[in-house]
Amino acid sequence: MNTLHFKYALEVAKTGSITQAAENLFMAQPNLSKAIKELEETLDYQIFERSAKGMFPTKKGAEFLVYARSVLMQIDKIKDLAHPDASNNQVFNISIPRGSYIAQGFTKFVAELDIDKGIDVNMEETNSVKTITNVAEGAFHLGVIRYQMVHEKYFTDYLRSKNLNSEDIWEFKHLAIMSKKHPLANAKQVKYTDLIKYVEIVHGDNTVPYLVNADTNGNKDINVKKKIYVYERYNQFDLLETITTSYMWTSPIPDNILARYGLVQRRCHPIERVYKDVLIYPKGYEFSELDNQFMEKVKEEKIKVSKKVYK
Predict the structure, then answer these.
(1) Residue 105 within any structural domain of the chain
(2) What is the Cα–Cα distance from 10 to 47, expressed in whole angstroms?
(3) Alpha-carbon separation of residue 112 from 102, 116, 166, 191 (angstroms)
(4) Does residue 311 form part of some domain?
(5) Which residues span the domain enclosing 297?
(6) Do residues 37 and 118 share a domain?
C-alpha cells in the first residue's frame, strides 16, 4: 500500500474537489483520480462519494482518513529520528481562540522553554471551526475551541464527525470589556440596553456554520448597529483603549492586560451568556511533556481570572 496515496486522499477530503486537490498537490487531475481509485481498490471499499457538488468521505472513508492521518504523523516522527538533534528539539503547536488568559498561559509556557535546545513552536489564534479543521487535518496537534453553551450540541456532534476527542477546560460568563474612560465604566449596574448607543468591537470570523441566522454573538436582546469587525487580538485592545465609547464581549481577562491598556470588565444584567472553552485533539493522540506543561500554565491563568469578582 502506497502511503503517498494517503496524502492524496487527505488533500481530496480537505478540498472536497479532485480538481483543487490536484492543483494543491501540483499534479495532473487524471493522475490523482487514478491514484485514489487504486487506493480504493486496494482497500476494497469506497473512500469518497462522488457528486456534482464534490467529493465527500463515506462512513468507512472517514474512518480511513483518521488512520491515514495518524500513519503519516508517525512516519514524520520516524523521519525525525534521522536528525541527531531530534530529541533535543522542543516542538509544540496549538490553535486557540482569542482568549487572553489562554494567550497569557501560552506566553508563560514559551518563556520557560529551554533556550539551549531547539525551539519549534507554532500558535494560531482563530475561530473554533477553523481550529477544529486545523486539528482534524493534522496541521496542529492540539486546539482550544470556544462556543456559547446554546451551541454545544452542534460542536460536540461536529467534533465526533471529525474523530476528535475533547476535554472541558472552563465554563464562564461573557463580560463587557471597555476603557476606564467609557461612560459605563463606573456605572452602578450595566444593562444590555445601556450598550445600544455605543460601538461594539466584534471578531469578524466568529460564525457557526449552519447557524448563520442564529445569534452567534449573543446580541439577541439589543439591536446594536455600531460595529467594528477585527481579526487580531492586538487590534481589539488598541481600539478599546483609543475609542473610549467602544466595548467588546470577552472571556475574563488577566489584570495585567487590563492595566496595560487601561480597561475594565463589567457584567451585564439581567441576562448573562455562558461560554465554554474545550481542549481538542485527535483520537489516539499521546500528549507530550510540552503539551502537559502548556495545559498547566493555562489552568493556572484560568484559576487566577476565575477567582476575581466582577461587578
Answers:
(1) yes
(2) 10
(3) 16, 11, 26, 42
(4) no
(5) 86-170+276-306
(6) no
Residue-wise pLDDT for 3-33, tens only, equals: 889 999 999 988 889 999 999 899 999 999 9
Distance CA 43, CA 295 (A): 39
Domain count, the chain: 3
The pLDDT, as a whole number, for residue 217 is 47
Q: Is 79 exposed, middle or buried (0-12, 13-18, 19+ CB in 10 A)?
A: exposed
Mean pLDDT in residue range 239-249? 94
Name the residue with cell 493556572: 300
Percentage of the residues of the chain whose pLDDT score is greater than 70:
90
